[in-house]
Amino acid sequence: MILSADQKFANNISEYYQLLDWAELISKDYLAVERVVINNKDGHTVIFAQVYVYNLISKYTQLHIPRGPILYSTNISQEIIQEFWDNMKEIAQKYNAIFTLIEPAQDIYHDYSQIFKKYTQPSELERLPHQTQILDLNLSENDLLKNMHSKMRYNIKLAQKKGVEIKTIPNKHPEFNKYFDIFFNLMKDTSQRGKFAIHSKKHYKNILKNDLDEIEVSLIIAEYEDNVLATNIILDTLDQRIYLHGASSNQYRNLMAPPLLQWQSILEAKNLGKKIYDFWGVSTTKKSWQGISKFKMQFGGKTIDYPSSQIFIHKRFIFNLYNIFRKIRGKSI
Predict the structure, then answer these.
(1) What is the dihedral sign for C-alpha 117, 118, 122, 123?
(2) What's the whole-model pTM score?
(3) Residue 289 carries which DSSP code?
C-alpha cells in the first residue's frame, strides 16, 4: 500500500486510551479493566484491546473499547478473529454486560470491517468525539502560524502585546491547590455558558495528581495582573500532546487569553519533540460543538474522522429495554 504524506501523518496518532497508564490514570472512573491479547502461532501479538467496564443499570454493566482494538497485522485469520470475540464474550459474561461499545482507532493500514462484520453493528452510541483536529509539529513555527486563520494570529499577537502571561502549574507547585480550585470554578462557569456537562472535581484532581511513566498531565494557565483568565489541562505521551480540557473567564475577554494559552502549549510541545498536537475533539455536524470546534480549527491542521461506533450486543432483550429508557431520558450513552 502506498500512503500519501497526509495518510502517514494521520496514522502517527497514538491511541492513549489503550495505554496501560491511561487506565491507571482514570482508575477511579470505571468498575474494572480487562486486557485482551491475541497472539499468532509465532507468539507475536496480533490484536490488543483494553476493555473498560462501567456500571450501567441495576446489576448490569457495559464494556467499552475506546480507540481500539489495536491491530498489529494487515492479515488476520478468521481463527484469530474468533478467538478475540470469544474473549470478549467471556468478559461480558464475567461482568454481566449488556453490550460492548467499540469506538475504533483512526487506522489507515487495517480494514476494521473484517473484525467487526460478524459480531457487531453500527451504533449511534458514543463516549468519544468522532472527529478531532490535529497539528503536525514537524512544521516550522512560521508554517504553523501561516496555516492558522488570520484572526487567530491577530488574537495571539494581541494577547502577547497586552501582557498576558502563560504559566505551567505542576502538581508539586506550592500553590497547586489554589490554582486547581480556580481551574475548576472556571470549568463550572464555562460549562454553564456552553451548556455542556463536566467531570467531577475529584476526576480532574486525580488525573493531575498521578505520576506515571508513559503519560504526563499538566495544568497550564493564562494570567493577567494576578487574574487567571484561562486554564487548560494537557496530556503528554511520548510522541504527542493532547488538549484534554479547557476553561476561560468572562473577565478581560478582550485580551484573548485562550488563543495565546493554546499557542504557547503548541510551541512547548514542539520544543519537547512531540510530533502531533491533538485538540481531542471537534465536530462538523453537532450544533452544540460549533463554537469550540471553530476555535480549534482556526489553528489550522487537519480534521481526522474516526470510524463509526460499533456495538456488540450480549443481552438483546435487556438492551432493547435500556435503549427505550435511554431515549426517554435523552441520554447519549
Answers:
(1) negative
(2) 0.90
(3) G
